[in-house]
Amino acid sequence: MTKLFGAIDLGATSGRVIAAVIGDDRFELTEIHRFVNQPIDSTSGLHWNFVGIMAEIAVGLKALGEFGDQAGMPIESVGVDTWAVDFGALDSKGNLLEAPRHYRDVRNQIGVADVQARIDSAQLFAINGLQHQPFNTIFQLAALRLQNPEQWSNIERILLLPDLISYQLTGHAVTEATNASTTGLFDASKKQWSDELLALVGLQPAQLAPIVQPGEEIGKLRREFVSSPALEATRVIAVASHDTASAVVGVPLDGRSTAFLSSGTWSLLGLELDAPVLTRSAMTQNFTNELGAGGRIRFLKNLSGLWLLSQSIEHWFATGVNQTATVESELKVLLDQAEHERGGAIFDVTDPQFLVPGDMPLRIQVAIKRAGMAVPKTPAGIVRSILESLAASYSETIAALVAVTGTAISRINVVGGGSVNRLLCQMTANATGLPVLAGPVEATAVGNLLVQAQAAQLIGPSLEAGRALVRLRFELSEFQPQSPDREAQ
Length: 489
Prior knowledge:
Blueprint: E1 3-10, E2 14-23, E3 26-36, E4 39-42, E5 45-48, H1 50-71, E6 75-81, E7 87-90, H2 108-118, H3 121-128, H4 137-147, H5 149-153, E8 157-160, H6 161-170, E9 175-176, H7 177-180, E10 186-187, E11 192-193, H8 195-201, E12 211-212, E13 217-220, E14 235-237, H9 243-249, E15 258-263, E16 266-273, H10 280-284, E17 288-291, E18 297-304, H11 307-318, H12 327-338, H13 360-370, H14 379-405, E19 411-415, H15 422-432, E20 436-438, H16 443-455, H17 463-473, E21 477-479, H18 484-488
Parallel strand pairs: 1-6, 6-14, 9-12, 15-19, 19-20
Antiparallel strand pairs: 1-2, 2-3, 4-5, 7-8, 10-11, 13-14, 15-16, 16-18, 17-18, 20-21
Helix pairs in contact: 2-4, 9-16, 11-14, 12-14, 14-15
């Protein structure tokens, strides 16, 4: 038996709607619609273009329905995943009070200062188990309450971004558990909202929608999104709606000694555990405990990722330094050139100066100069430094994971966009001394779809059953650690 599903997979720079035929050892993906996702920088701050996002999703769903009609298959269900922490505030009529804020908005610093004045950082970590990030939802909410008390007083409900999209699609408001765990308002041990932290930012429990688990049905598509017969009975399923949680579902892990690395705009590097690690060592090393599918813990560190590379290429295009006509071709040229560069300078990819958009190459050059190293002068040299610095940060994090958890890590499984960057994968193997298994590139969509397939009882309910299917149906690449001399050959 085979069924047709849809994944709405929204990233910080692009979104896509993907169709998947799953069953009888089949797992066939077709990208139906892709669109650019860019924030809006206004006088009030940095916002997401939520109206535009929903318009693109509607286009994607229409195309998905047409795909189903042509295939003679109804769309069993769709699931939504996005990045974490951002939210929409609704009034009593269910309308957005403003477009959702972007997590890179500078206003967040106001909230950080307010929360830190109210609770000790060690006490905060003991409850929510999260790595300190200035954009965590708890800080965003504190900033909103301070900066816009009038809007704050009109909030009826807070919905995280994937839940906000699902609400628009179905009319039903829920909070999916894996994304709830990223907010800083969630008790990592009890796996529920923390009354203490809600009170700290001035929220009532009723202002948050009920928590649901991956695999639960949210509701059927509203009529306005049903454009063809294939969509008539389509359900919206709560998947692991934090994109990293979906990506980890799609990682073909074959044991607890394999670390996962979700490599995209951000680098999420960690281990899958049965329980949170809330020790002082975990806190001082800046690890985070987030929920995954199946009630497991994603114990990881949030590091900078390919954002450094994409921002650099955008700057070179804006200033006419580019050598080719498209971003994709430019990236290929620069990676080919970077492979022949020697001795890229290492800089701290976690430096807060790299969080905001802008002239990334200049910031990197300044950081390298301040560190007393030779400054790369060419785009290829800067790209080499970015990749070597990312690999160095992965090596440091692997060592910290071993020290904090006591786990002997035997391999790293890279998924997402970074899994097709062969130079970065090889550098990661070299820097960590561990073999690297790369793929699948669409792990987030794959994990989204696996949860839907399990909800439809096409595959077994365990994470291992889904991962076995990934190993069977997707091509993976392996990179062994090499000496620098061999890499250069």
